[in-house]
Design goal:
This protein has helices at 6-34, 40-73. The protein is mostly helical. It has one domain. Helix 1 (6-34) runs antiparallel to helix 2.
Amino acid sequence: MKTIDFSFYILTYNFVIGVLLMLASEKIGAYAGYFTGSYKQGISRATRIGIFTFGACAALISFGVYIASYVLKL
């Protein structure tokens, strides 16, 4: 019977979440600007850049660890 390695599932999940955050950063930034009032433009821009950067880092780290563990597993 083959054992299941859940770490690959977790890394794949983190990669997908990171990519989805990157794609949704524009919309999240628009919503953050909508709720803030007088600092609408600055908050929207900072939120958009921050969410995109966090999503990119999460996706890149997850993908790197996934590839490294796959190569080391061979």
